Structure formats: structure tokens, C-alpha cells
């Protein structure tokens, strides 16, 4: 969940699947920053840099709840593609739903670099949403 239109289209598809399978959704946001080291860095990241991700997650959680689906959020630091693959693998998830392009879609004309990485590295089934 990066706040892009594709991520919310992915959420729509995840809600349909979760409803049909009596499942929950775990929304993941990965910030490409390294984990904060000092108290000042933690405060800055929390109050400024994570303001939008928290807003996206709150919107996704409310939208999921309106559709009768539990939504849990997770915000992580690091390289987006590897973090998504590792998180899904470690959590033993059944499916990764990912948008074909996120907020950095200008970089990749046809397929976003994060979704491209996830498609090629994940051993878990993937639903790619355009």
C-alpha cells in the first residue's frame, strides 16, 4: 500500500478474495529509509515522513472495514521488493496482491521495479493489478 491508485485497485481485488475466502488482509508499506537510530530521527520519521503512509493505511483500513474485512497494517523500512517478498514468506501468506506500478511509475514504463522484483523473486502466488 503505497497510496497509488494501483495500490487501492489492488485493495479492491484483495477485498473480493478475502470476502470469498473468509480471510483477512495485511497491508504493507515499505519506506526505503533505513531504520531510525536516534530519538530525533524517530520523531522526525514518525511526525513527517510516515504521515502519508499512516494516512493511506487508515484509509485502507476504513475501506476494508466498510466491506466487512479485517485489515491489519504493517510499516517497514528497507528495500521495497526484498522486504515484501521476505515479509510474505515469513508470514506464510497465501497470496501477494500488488499493483503493477506504484507512486514511482515514471521510472518504469511498463512494470514497476518493485512489482517486477516481487513477481520474479516470490515463491508465493501473486495477483498483479493494473
Structure description:
The protein is of the alpha/beta class. It has one domain: Rossmann fold. Helix content is 49%, strand content 17%. It has helices spanning 5-21, 39-49, 51-66, 80-90, 113-121, and strands spanning 25-31, 71-77, 96-99, 126-129. A two-stranded parallel sheet has the order 1-2. Strands 3-4 form a two-stranded parallel sheet. Strand 3 (96-99), helix 5 (113-121) and strand 4 form a beta-alpha-beta unit. Helix 4 (80-90) packs parallel to helix 5 (113-121). The radius of gyration is 15 Å and the shape is globular. It starts with a helix and ends with a strand.
Order of helices and strands: HEHHEHEHE
With strands numbered from the N-terminus, the spatial order across the biggest sheet is 1-2
CATH superfamily membership: HUPs
Q: What is the CA-based Rg, rounded?
A: 15 Å
> Uncertain segments of ≥5 residues (pLDDT<50)?
105-110
- The CATH architecture term is 3-Layer(aba) Sandwich
- The fraction of residues in strands falls at 15-25%
Q: What does the overall shape look like?
A: globular
Average pLDDT rating: 86
Which class of secondary structure composition applies to the elements?
A: alpha/beta
Please provide the count of β strands: 4
Number of domains: 1
> Helicity, in percent?
40-55%
The CATH topology, please? Rossmann fold
Number of helical elements = 5
